[in-house]
Amino acid sequence: MATGLDSQAQDILRTNDRGGYTVPTAGLYPYQWNWDSAFAALGFAQFDMDRAWVELETLFAGQWDDGMVPHILHHVVNPGYFPGPEVWGCNGPSPSSGISQPPVAGTIVRKIYDLDPVVGEARARRLFPKLRRWHDWFLKWRSHEGAICITHPWESGRDNTPDWDGAMARIDPKDVGEYDRRDTSHVDNAMRPTRYDYDRYIWLVQRGRRLGWDQAQMAEDNPFFVADPTMTFTLLRSHRDILALGEALSEDVAGMADDIAQLEAGAESLWNNDLQSYDVRDTVNGAWANCISNASFLNWYAGIPSDGQAKHLDRIMDLAKYPLPSHDPASPKFEPKRYWRGPTWSMMNMMIGEGLIAFGLPQGERLRDATMRLIRDHGFSEYFDPTDGSPAGGQSFTWTAAIWLAWASPNARRA
User: Fold this and answer.
1) 159, 259, 279, 335: which is the annotated catalytic residue?
2) How many CB atoms lie within 10 A of CB 186?
3) CATH topology classification for 4-408
4) Model confidence, pTM
């Protein structure tokens, strides 16, 4: 029987539904975002299976010829958002950005298929080759020593994490020109990336456009090409999932086991021995970010246990009333309300928690309980202050509602 929060979460998904795709929240994010959309599909699957598949099908309808699935699909013109499609200047099948986002969709396709294989078989079969092409694109254009890299902070989904500070400092955005940010008209400036960050974000967009979003050129002499735990761990997990899905559907899975071995080696290349944690590795100069983020704990989600990482997990969970913060609270760079420099995010908690539970670790259920209490007590915010749970960012947020329905709610259907 649905609880009041279940009904609220369903209403948020319906309200943010734009007919075939779901916006993260009205106003602040008026388009279809890649990983937001995948989580939305998982939420819809709890009460409307057809709508869940439509969400994913709409996302993959925007796939480029080279296999890339953009991080934003601009289905409608919205002058209230910057940068829009006219700034990106891309030539995909529909107006879009020129970068991708963490590839969680493969895992979610498998989850939704497993909830109802009879209903999902034909639709999963159509998505399978598209998922493989997207994964192959990451392996071809974003791999460094097996780890997956990003060419823009937005590509990671963790826009302003301290992980990028070293690489961002290399960029001189003096010629970026004037532009009008729209995000701070919707959300308190103290909760968003700074002007320093945004100048560099736009400089990287302008660079990509000048290069025609040619992947080979974008990787050459790029001041921002960093190996990222988020990308590496989510691709590794997703590749495992679409391999299992392909086997269940009797699809061609040749070479996928080799890809997984390559990604496992790449994951280990992100182990910072001095920090005793998975960390961001700068491919330009070989430097470590020396940051422990919530992405550092996605190793279990990817199927990789780590006693050393578990020690950090216990320490950080004890420091935060509502774990898991996006940056180590013991760090001088920790900011509890500024986007990815400290706040807690429900979808990261779900991925980390699922990984921990799969390994039989009690911290997983502890994290699920913390996420349940956070949403129950503080609503469906984009993210939350880990010190007191206060809501931050956009409100009535799609992925927080989806995580409640699929994982945090006592009524969640878990395949």
Assistant:
1) 159
2) 17
3) Glycosyltransferase (1.50.10)
4) 0.97
